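Run log // design_07
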């Protein structure tokens, strides 16, 4: 800091009111972090309606839907999947059965009734005595090309129903047919793609071939019964073991057996993981296993071969082949996952005579695995979404989510939980019963946010419901709003928080004890929020500096020291040596490359040579809402060659005869002095500006000083608007050697030595005064030159409410009936309302 006292005295050539807090809003440190940056971790098998999401990149502003675990949203429609076998032998007096199978899948939120199910052939192939398998009755031949099951079968929401019938084809027939499975429901007719069966008809001209069926075995009986609905996965995200079996179904001759090596391939849907051979026994050859792991978006496969013949009419042993896989965490439009089994190989032909050789075997079975919710509950919603890494240092986190429930039964409660890192448990922050209209849940965290933020800065939210029916949870908004900045409190803080004590030093729950420490930690556009703490008895230390470009803010996001009032009490910063200490010193570089764009707001400062100091050439400095007690030989606020500085709504209380300037602006550029209250600077002007460019002085109250407002050598035009200057010993407003016009409007100059004064007539001629109330000064306009009173100027007692207590809104406020009310002109000042007659008040304090 420059040696102020001598420098400032040389600058002296001659022998607003308080308008409320206008400190710049620091919204740049309030970051709204939407679901658009969040990752989705569905831990309970939740389906998603529409596009698969690995991140909630489209969440904020769109509509992210999850359905109940074990079910699908209403966006998924019904379908029919097929199970079929091909290449069967005929030509015998009694042929073995062929199984025709399909499964009807209902992924919707409502039950569907299947009134009729048909297997339709392109050629006449069906006999008149089909055998019912699933359901166990109701099958009959409608025609030689149609096997039909009549009678209602209700398929529950989010479930599947198999339809299987066996039939014996005609003898001595060689043909190929395509068979289609078709379900008739009240919601429409649904069909599966047709499948082909080839029949060898002549015992004398072709080798025997065999029927084969394959699929999951949930029963484990001695003979494998065809099953298309697979085992239920009790908890998504867990490993499940599947038993798989093959059956040769002809049951007529040894020549109908399935030869080795037969290859079994199971296609595993995308989203499953960790596919492995769990165990195997004869006839499976574990040395032939080939595994292609599925990914989040592509299917995988498991393949194995046999090393023994599967003889006529037999099945592979129960549990002889078991495969394990981990179910997905529900990132599909349905949790009825389609698996596909295919068999490829050859039948066994007779080794002598006309029947030697082999015929091809090919069989396919599509199977369903229902995935249910946690703990086997069929209607659990458990959606977990993780925030991006929340930035710090944290002052406050405001959490908000908007969501609704569609399709299901009304009255289902949804808990909104947050993961507590310390207790490793979910904490419920709200329980709501949403409808199809959004419910909103909010929670603000200040000192209590730390348990919910992990070491990497993430917060995890869970939507949990064990409702009574299938439904879809729609999350319309998920947002974390984080207010950034260090916290300071000398009653509860510590400048030496260690990693073993807290992972959040300087944040709301673990504040620093000194402003100096917070300043040392602040980076570019950083902030320190300072509580009153014990400062009124043990003040915060003065000489707080913010220096260097690394500490600078920007025009849109200045660095910030923010005092936090406790009622009307501000945090106190107090010096120990009033001859040299400074409250806050900002900038740190005479080149202008220092800490530019810094705001200091709402502090009480005492016993310092200078309360607030802007280093040479600093840009964008804002001093606002501070109360400075200026000791003998001290100064309130000093701007040294500042650029675009603003001094707003501060109070500077001097110690009378020995006190220098309340506000001193030295060679500033585009400086705004607005709304300040300056008192008792008897040793100098209350506001003094020397050699500045683009100066604006408005809405200030200057009382009881040597000179009220002194404009010395302004380099170009200056504006002096709506100030109240009263009871100053020498002059109220004083123009000294201006280089251009000084425009004076709506000012009250009362009870001073001289009201409007100039150092020469040439200077007085550059003062344009109008709409001013200049009254009861020893000389109203005459000093070394005479300032001309404007045509709209008045000279009348302004009738103030009170002039002694600057803490009150009535300080220099115009009383009812004042001639200064509604007799001024419109100067376009923000927050300065017009009167009903479209005029404006004169003076610093608005009366209406």
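design_07 sequence
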């Amino acid at each position: 800091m420059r040696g102020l006292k001598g420098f400032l005295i040389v600058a002296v050539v001659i022998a607003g009111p308080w308008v409320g807090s206008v400190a710049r809003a620091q919204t740049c440190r309030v970051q709204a972090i939407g679901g658009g940056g969040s990752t989705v971790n569905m831990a309970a098998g939740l389906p998603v309606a529409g596009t698969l999401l690995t991140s909630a990149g489209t969440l904020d502003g769109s509509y992210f839907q999850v359905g109940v675990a074990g079910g699908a949203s209403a966006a998924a429609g019904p379908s029919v999947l097929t199970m079929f076998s091909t290449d069967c032998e005929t030509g015998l007096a009694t042929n073995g059965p062929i199984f025709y199978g399909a499964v009807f899948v209902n992924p919707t939120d409502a039950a569907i009734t299947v009134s009729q199910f048909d297997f339709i052939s392109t050629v006449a192939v069906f006999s008149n005595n089909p055998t019912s398998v699933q359901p166990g009755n109701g099958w009959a031949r409608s025609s030689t090309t149609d096997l039909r099951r009549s009678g209602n079968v209700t398929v529950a929401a989010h479930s599947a129903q198999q339809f299987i019938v066996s039939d014996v084809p005609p003898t001595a027939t060689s043909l190929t047919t395509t068979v289609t499975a078709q379900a008739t429901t009240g919601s429409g007719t649904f069909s599966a793609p047709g499948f082909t069966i080839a029949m060898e008809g002549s015992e004398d001209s072709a080798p025997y071939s065999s029927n084969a069926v394959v699929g999951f075995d949930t029963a484990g009986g001695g003979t494998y019964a065809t099953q298309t609905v697979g085992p239920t996965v009790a908890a998504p995200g867990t490993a499940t073991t599947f038993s798989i079996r093959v059956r040769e179904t002809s049951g007529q001759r040894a020549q109908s057996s399935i030869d080795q090596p037969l290859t079994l391939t199971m296609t595993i849907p995308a989203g499953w993981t960790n596919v492995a051979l769990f165990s195997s026994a004869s006839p499976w050859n574990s040395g032939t296993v080939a595994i292609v792991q599925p990914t989040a978006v592509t299917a995988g496969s498991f393949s194995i071969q046999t090393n023994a013949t599967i003889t006529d009419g037999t099945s592979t042993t129960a549990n002889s082949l078991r495969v394990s896989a981990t179910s997905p965490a529900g990132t599909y439009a349905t949790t009825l996952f389609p698996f596909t089994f295919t068999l490829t190989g050859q039948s066994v032909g007779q080794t002598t005579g006309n029947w030697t050789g082999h015929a091809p075997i090919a069989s396919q079975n599509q199977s369903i695995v229902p995935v249910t919710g946690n703990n086997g509950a069929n209607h659990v919603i458990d959606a977990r979404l993780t925030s991006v890494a929340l930035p710090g240092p944290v002052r406050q986190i405001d959490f908000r989510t908007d969501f609704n429930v569609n399709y299901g039964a009304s009255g289902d409660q949804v808990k909104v939980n947050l993961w507590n890192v310390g207790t490793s448990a979910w904490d419920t922050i709200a329980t709501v019963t949403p409808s199809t209209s959004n419910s909103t849940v909010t929670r603000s965290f200040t000192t209590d946010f730390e348990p919910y933020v992990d070491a990497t800065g993430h917060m995890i939210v869970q939507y949990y419901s064990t409702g009574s029916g299938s439904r879809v949870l729609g999350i319309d908004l998920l947002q974390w709003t984080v207010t950034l900045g260090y916290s300071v409190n000398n009653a509860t803080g510590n400048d030496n928080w260690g990693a073993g004590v807290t992972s959040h030093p300087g944040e709301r729950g673990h504040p620093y004890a000194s402003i100096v420490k917070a300043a040392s930690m602040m980076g570019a556009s950083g902030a320190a929020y300072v509580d009153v703490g014990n400062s009124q008895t043990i003040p915060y230390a003065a000489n707080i500096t913010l220096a260097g470009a690394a500490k600078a803010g920007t025009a849109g996001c200045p660095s910030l020291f923010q005092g936090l009032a406790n009622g009307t009490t501000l945090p106190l910063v107090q010096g120990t040596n009033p001859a040299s200490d400074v409250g806050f010193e900002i900038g740190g570089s005479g080149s202008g490359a220092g800490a530019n764009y810094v705001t200091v707001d709402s502090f009480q400062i005492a016993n310092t040579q200078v309360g607030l100091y802007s280093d040479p050439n600093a840009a964008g400095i804002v001093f606002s809402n501070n109360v400075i007690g200026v000791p003998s030989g001290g100064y309130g606020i000093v701007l040294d060659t500042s650029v675009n500085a603003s001094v707003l709504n501060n109070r500077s209380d001097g110690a009378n005869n020995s006190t220098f300037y309340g506000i001193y602006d030295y060679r500033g550029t585009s400086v705004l002095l607005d709304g300040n209250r300056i008192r008792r600077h008897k040793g100098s002007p209350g506001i003094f500006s020397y050699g500045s460019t683009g100066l604006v002085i408005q809405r200030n109250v200057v009382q009881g000083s040597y000179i009220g407002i002194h404009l010395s050598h302004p380099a170009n035009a200056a504006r002096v608007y709506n100030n109240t200057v009263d009871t100053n010993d020498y002059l109220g407003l004083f123009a000294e050697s201006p280089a251009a016009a000084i425009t004076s409007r709506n000012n009250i100059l009362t009870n001073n030595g001289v009201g409007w004064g100039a150092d020469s007539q040439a200077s007085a001629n550059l003062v344009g005064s109008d709409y001013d109330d200049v009254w009861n000064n020893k000389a109203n306009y005459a000093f070394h030159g005479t300032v001309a009173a404007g045509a709209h100027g008045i000279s009348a007692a302004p009738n103030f409410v009170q002039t002694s207590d600057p803490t009150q809104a009535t300080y220099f406020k115009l009383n009812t009936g004042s001639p200064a009310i509604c007799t001024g002109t419109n100067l376009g000042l923000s927050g300065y309302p017009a009167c009903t007659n479209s005029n404006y008040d004169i003076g610093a304090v608005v009366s209406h």
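The longest helix spans residues 4-10.
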